[in-house]
Amino acid sequence: MNWISDWALPKIQTLFGAKRDVPENLWTKCPACEQMIFHRDLERGLHVCPHCGHHLRIGAIKRLDYTLDAGWQRIELPRAPADPLRFRDQRRYADRLRDAQTKIGMDDAVAVAHGAIEGRRAVVAAFEFAFMAGSMGAGVGEALVTAARLAVLQDAPLIVFTASGGARMQEGAVSLMQMPRTVIATRMVKEAGLPFFVVLCDPTTGGVTASFAMLGDVQIAEPGALIGFAGARVIEQTVRETLPEGFQRAEYLLEHGILDMVVPRGEMKATLARLISLLREPSLAPAEGDLAPALAEVAILPPTEPAQPGA
Question: What's the CATH code, domain 58-298?
Answer without folding.
Answer: 3.90.226.10
